[in-house]
C-alpha cells in the first residue's frame, strides 16, 4: 500500500514518486556501505556498488539519486554520507517503537530478532489474547492483555503495530490498532486488511514467498532437454 500523502486535499503533491522497487533496494545498498565502511573503504564508485550488488549501474544512479547524494568525479560516493542519507530517507536514523500483537512462534522470532535495532525498529511490548501468555516475557518483552493496546499506545506514544496472529483474527486486530491511534501496520498474515486510507500497511506474506521459492526450485531441478 502506498504511503499516505501529507499534502492537503485539493493540492497536488509536486514531489516525484519514488518506485517501490527503489525503496526495497535501499537496504541492500545500506548493508553494502556499512560493510565497506567497516573495511575502511570510504569512497566507492557507482560501478563498484553495481558490480557488488549485481544491479545495473544506471539503476544504481537512479536509486541513489533519491538520497540527494551525488557521486564525486574521480572519487565516487562518500560511504558515510550515503549511509546517513539512506537512513534519513528511510526514517531509520531515529528509533521507531512498535507493538507486536501475537505471542506465538512467529511473534517470538520477530521479538527476539536483534537486527531490527540496526534499522531503527524497537519492539517495546507484545500483546496476546491467551491468558497463559499474558504476564510473561517474550524474548525480554512484556506480554500484555490484548485489551490494553489503546491505553498503552497513548501512554507510550507508539504509532506502529506488527500483526502475527492467526489469519482469522487479523482484521479484528487491525481494527483495534487503528482505533488505538496506530498509523502503520506490518502485517505478517495473508489477509488483505480493510483499513482507512491514512493507515500505512505493509504485508509480508510468507506463504507467497515460499511459493515463489518452491516454483523456482522446481524449475531449476527440471531436467533440461
Strand content: 15-25%
Strand order of the largest sheet: 5-6-4-3-7-8-9
Judging from the principal axes of the Cα atoms, what is the shape? globular
Known CATH architecture of the largest domain = 3-Layer(aba) Sandwich
What is the CATH superfamily classification of the largest domain?
Answer: NAD(P)-binding Rossmann-like Domain
What is the CATH topology assignment of the largest domain? Rossmann fold
CATH class category label of the largest domain: Alpha Beta
Number of strands: 9
Query: Helical percent range?
Result: 40-55%
Please provide the ordered H/E string of secondary-structure elements: HEHHEHEHEEEHEHEEH
Span between termini: 42 Å
Concise description?
With 225 residues, the protein is an alpha/beta fold. The protein has helices at residues 20-38, 46-53, 57-65, 79-90, 105-111, 149-156, 167-179, 206-221, and strands spanning 43-44, 77-78, 96-101, 121-128, 137-138, 141-145, 160-163, 184-187, 200-203.
Amino acid at each position: 500500500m502506498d504511503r499516505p500523502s501529507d499534502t492537503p486535499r485539493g493540492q497536488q503533491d509536486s514531489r516525484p514518486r519514488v518506485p517501490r522497487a527503489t525503496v526495497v533496494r535501499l537496504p541492500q545498498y545500506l548493508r553494502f556501505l556499512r560493510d565497506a565502511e567497516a573495511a575502511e573503504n570510504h569512497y566507492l564508485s557507482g560501478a563498484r556498488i553495481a558490480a557488488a550488488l549485481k544491479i545495473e549501474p544506471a539503476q544504481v544512479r537512479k536509486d541513489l539519486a533519491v538520497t540527494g547524494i551525488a557521486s564525486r568525479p574521480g572519487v565516487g560516493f562518500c560511504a558515510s554520507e550515503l549511509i546517513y542519507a539512506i537512513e534519513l530517507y528511510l526514517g531509520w536514523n531515529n528509533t521507531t517503537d512498535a507493538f507486536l500483537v501475537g505471542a506465538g512462534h512467529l511473534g517470538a522470532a520477530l521479538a527476539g530478532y536483534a537486527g531490527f535495532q540496526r534499522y531503527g525498529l524497537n519492539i517495546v511490548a507484545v500483546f496476546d489474547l491467551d491468558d497463559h501468555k499474558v504476564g510473561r516475557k517474550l524474548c525480554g518483552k512484556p506480554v500484555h492483555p490484548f485489551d490494553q493496546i489503546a491505553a498503552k499506545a497513548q501512554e507510550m506514544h507508539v504509532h506502529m503495530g506488527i500483526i502475527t496472529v492467526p489469519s482469522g483474527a487479523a482484521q479484528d486486530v487491525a481494527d483495534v490498532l487503528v482505533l488505538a491511534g496506530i498509523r502503520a501496520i506490518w502485517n505478517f498474515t495473508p489477509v488483505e486488511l480493510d483499513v482507512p486510507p491514512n493507515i500505512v500497511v505493509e504485508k509480508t506474506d510468507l506463504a507467497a514467498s515460499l511459493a515463489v521459492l518452491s516454483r523456482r526450485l522446481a524449475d531449476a531441478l527440471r531436467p533440461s532437454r
